Amino acid sequence: IKLLKKEKHHLLHTHQSKAGMIGRIAGKIVKVPVIFHTLHGPLFYKNQNIFLRNFYKFWEKILTKFTDCIISVGKDLRDYYLKEKIGDPEKYVIVRSPVHLEKLEKFSKLSKEEKIKIKKELKVEVDNPVVGWVGRMEKEKGVFIALEVAKKVIERCPSVNFLFVGKGPLLGKIKEKARELNIEKNVKFLGFRKDIERVMAIFDILFSTSEREGLSQVLVQGAKLGIPIVSFDILGAKEMVKENGFLVPFENISLMAEKIISLLKDLKNAKILGEKGKKLVGREWELKE
């Protein structure tokens, strides 16, 4: 409130849950002329504690009354909020989280020889199939669940390599869990990568275990790269996983493993399936620098 009074802003744009609540309340008190808020993901969701869910839903309804524009990263997320009677359709605008379309298009067309080169650099067995997971190493991304999925797949397909890309506060514990599950020989942790399009290009399958998203950028990248995707059926996932993969109920580890195994058993058809995802990512996602 002190800062807004001092600076006399004409427009306030808030993001995320806590900042979105506090920021908009402060903006209303100070009477900032225009208030925007961006939804990156749902503040309240299906698997949440019912008290918190109702608490956040109540506050979103109040805050939306003095929010001039609500920006959503996905259509699914917007529709979810409208279904809960949060704001009117006229207040919502869809603005995609942009990706490097040119890079993705380039790496979706790599030759077999180029993919072999990347595999060698990453010390991945050249002839083995690769299943990839990308995200922050934190509970919300379901990374421990991802390891359980990997274990079930490895038991049936012992030659498969799992690549986990990303870093975060749980990385040490996740590596320890992989050792406990006795799957460390099949699992590699690549940490944070600046060449994510290049790394994902060698994935035969992409899987996602997030418990909530607005619209996962990883799924957008995977779809544009033509990778078949297996994801939990959470908010936003159905925008990027249609004919190009499978959606499974949240936390159904066995079914997710079965879907990945079915793709591994016929990688030629899996690739054809993945190619269908390219049409889901149009110019609206283009990153303009």
Secondary-structure topology with pairs:
Blueprint: H1 2-7, E1 11-15, H2 17-30, E2 34-39, H3 50-64, E3 69-72, H4 75-83, E4 92-94, H5 101-107, H6 112-121, E5 130-134, H7 143-156, E6 161-165, H8 171-180, E7 187-191, H9 196-200, E8 205-208, H10 217-225, E9 229-232, H11 237-240, E10 245-248, H12 253-264, H13 267-275
Parallel strand pairs: 1-2, 2-3, 3-4, 5-6, 5-8, 6-7, 8-9, 9-10
Weakly predicted, low-confidence segments:
none
Radius of gyration: 21 Å
Strand percentage: 15-25%
The shape is elongated
Amount of helix:
40-55%
Order of helices and strands: HEHEHEHEHHEHEHEHEHEHEHH
Secondary structural class: alpha/beta
Number of strand elements: 10
Global mean pLDDT: 94
- Sheet of most strands: 6 strands, parallel
Task: Output the number of helix runs.
Answer: 13
Query: What is the spatial order of strands in the main beta sheet?
Result: 7-6-5-8-9-10
N-end to C-end Cα span: 33 Å
Descriptive tags:
289 residues; alpha/beta; six-stranded parallel sheet; 13 helices
What does this entry look like structurally?
The chain is α/β, with parallel strands linked by helices and 289 residues long. It has 13 helices and ten strands. It has helices at 2-7, 17-30, 50-64, 75-83, 101-107, 112-121, 143-156, 171-180, 196-200, 217-225, 237-240, 253-264, 267-275; strands at 11-15, 34-39, 69-72, 92-94, 130-134, 161-165, 187-191, 205-208, 229-232, 245-248. The strands form two sheets. Strands 7-6-5-8-9-10 form a six-stranded parallel beta sheet, sandwiched between helices. Helix 4 (75-83) links the parallel strand 3 (69-72) and strand 4. The longest helix has 15 residues, at 50-64. The two termini are 33 Å apart.
